[in-house]
Amino acid sequence: MIEMQNITKYYDNFRALNNFNLKVEKGEILGLLGPNGAGKTTAMRILTCFLPASSGKASVAGFDIFEDSVEVRRRLGYLPETPPLYPEMSVNSYLNFVGEIRELPKSVRKQRIGYVCERIGLDAYKGRVINTLSKGYRQRVGLAQALLHNPEVLILDEPTVGLDPNQIIEIRNLVKDLAQDHTIILSTHILPEVSMTCGRVVIINEGEIAAVDSVQNLEKNATGRPAWKIVLKAPDNFDWQTIVNKAPDAQINDLIQGDASEFKLRLNRSEDFDDLFKVLTKENCIFREITPIKATLEDVFLKITLGEERKENA
Ligand code: ADP
Fold first, then answer.
1. 58 and 126 assigned to the same domain
2. Of the residues 181, 215, 252, 278, which has the maximum number of CB atoms within 10 A of its CB?
3. Mean pLDDT lowest for which of 1-15, 24-38, 183-197, 244-258?
4. How far apart are CA 93 and CA 100, in angstroms?
5. Which domain, by its residues, includes 193?
């Protein structure tokens, strides 16, 4: 449904995107994840024909974004980070105006406004002036304008930024619901957003694609050596050196949970934990908690964006 091939974008001499390659299948929700300034908005603006690329090719629903931009725009709905709203207009007249720009015939306009407002939970707010709405509802109006012409593809730039936790959940659920009928690309710098909403994630760093995969695969591949978090109550005369000798990577924090100590162990093989657990049991330590530590998307993200991976691979 969406394809970008070797897209590069320069702002004067500054390269904001470098050789961007991306394929999005019909019905997917793809998350563009990256720190601020990574190039997410630039990629989205190029796809939505708001900004020309310096080089490369891209298409939406089979139409070239440079040669067939009118066809591409017909098939795209775009919610920029700041929705293009006219605050003094009512929701209904604003959507009517958007429908006119989209060249929807009057009868279709009316029907689509009705449908979209119902789908997005704006029915009761159609008569309200936009600047009297909460930020969450203004975001819904932004989504409504992106959806009005029933585009195959929705491109949403940071759709939950600045919303309160309840509004975030509502908008996330809405996006998931919309994915039944639309292919969606959304950008975010918030990790739970992609974990909860997106099937696949593209991690962008300094204008380059650093990783593309499902959240589960990214986490699985980043696990590295097995690690455990252990909380235990040791006898007074317990010699912590015993642990250190068995597990050189153990991080021991003294008595951080009442009378118990918490530490992290990272060993080369899961079997190595067996010896250690035997020692601790023999020394009459009481286990309060043993939890395997899994890599999270956050670990993957930090590793990539802080450049550790590059250093390790160098
Ligand atoms: P993101 O959406 O990931 O925060 P952007 O695509 O907005 O990133 O920006 C990527 C980089 O390009 C940033 O370093 C930003 O400062 C720069 N940039 C964005 N727009 C312009 C512009 N119009 N002129 C010059 N530099 C820009």
1. yes
2. 215
3. 244-258
4. 10
5. 2-215
157 CA from centroid of ligand 1 (Å): 13
> Structure tokens of 259?
């009378």
What per-residue confidence (pLDDT) applies to 310?
46
The CA-atom distances, in angstroms, between 84 and each of 91, 95, 159, 301 are: 13, 11, 13, 31
| Mutate which of 18, 20, 41, 305 for ligand 1 pocket (most atoms within 8 A of beta carbon) | 41
Query: Final residue of a domain: which of 183, 215, 247?
Result: 215
Q: For the segment 185-205, what is each residue's pLDDT rounded down to a tens digit?
A: 999 888 878 888 899 999 999
Instruction: Say how many Å lie between the CA of residue 128 and the centre of ligand 1.
Output: 34
- Check whether residue 152 and residue 284 sit in a common domain: no
Say if residue 294's pLDDT is above 80.
Answer: no
Residues whose CB is less than 8 angstroms from the CB of residue 291 and which lie 6 or more positions away in sequence, other chains included: 228, 229, 230
CATH code of the domain in which 283 resides: 3.30.70.380
Environment class of 33 (CB within 10 Å of its CB; exposed 0-12, middle 13-18, buried 19+): buried
Q: Given 147, 180, 215, which residue is the final one in a domain? A: 215
312 lines ligand 1 (CB under 6 A): no
pTM, 2 dp: 0.79
